[in-house]
Amino acid sequence: MDKLIKARTEIEDIDKEMAELFVKRMHAVRSVSEYKTEHGLPIYDPQREEALIAKNSSRVENDQLRSYYIEFLRDTMKISRQYQEQLANGMRVAFSGVPGAFASIAAGKIFNKAVQVPYPDFKSAYNAVVNGDCDCAVLPIENSTTGEVGQVLDMMFSGPLYVSGVYNLSITQHLMALPGTHLSDIKKVISHPQALSQCAPYIRKHGFEQSEYANTAMAAQFVKEQNSPNLAAIASEETAKLYGLEIIEKNINEASQNTTRFAVLTRTLTNDGNSSDKHSILMFTVRNEAGSLAKAINIIGLYGYNLRCLRSRPMKELLWQYYFYAEAEGDLASENGKQLMVALSNCCDKLRMFGSFKYPADLH
Question: Which residues, in sequence order, are CB contacts of 28 under 8 Å at separation 6+?
Fold first, then answer.
């Protein structure tokens, strides 16, 4: 009996210490949650969790106990995520369009507990973050079929926001109309210009008249409101369910691999201190001198950064002048990256790093 009492007393003392450490840990979790909200970062980071489990479990030498400790760690991290989700319920995420838009779908997958705030266009969503009305904005920057979203890139170049992450959302376009509508009834389709472009061969095949709309979900909403069997929209399956439309034909986009990249835009530059598997975005203008662009590209390579993307965009305020958008593998927030930026300043007039973040992740 003395042995049992002694063991129980020891467990009670340990439990007391663990309770104190638990409270201390959750206070730190709150700080992490505040940082993630401020920088527009998702709560769940599976790569970091697995790395921490591998690192911490290695401290337990007993093989049998290690398996229980791994389970303990997973439970602890799950509780931490739940606490962060509760704290993040007031996080406001701006997007362009109405519920059901692809940006709304992306925002929901990145920030599943946050409050989504719809805006009528890209500029309004962007300015909502600038003005402090929202914590971050989820906006498209590129589609694998139709290319860059120039309006968003232009706002990034001229505006003050940073990029805390880029996420890939697979886009599947469907033809939808009022319930009971037949394909032969449809005379006109409406959707966002990029969606119409992605489905151009299908539209030509059926001889549909087409009309551009500000957003795919707004187009579906309009079809519902018009209550006409001659009108159809091109949008997502989620949108059809949301507005009570029937999918007439699925997967009508030309490219089977159709993906849109969404950027999370925030007021603060993010640096999580982890330099592995990083991706960076920068924009710059070069001096009007022979070889300036080539010099800039060579400097990026010289410092060991693999340039994955380089494109030019016209500057609105200066006729026939251009800025350059670049994406590189590597962490520009590192000491090496800072030295690169100093070197680039010798041949670039305007130079800005927009963020270094984990390599673009796929949203499921």
Answer: none
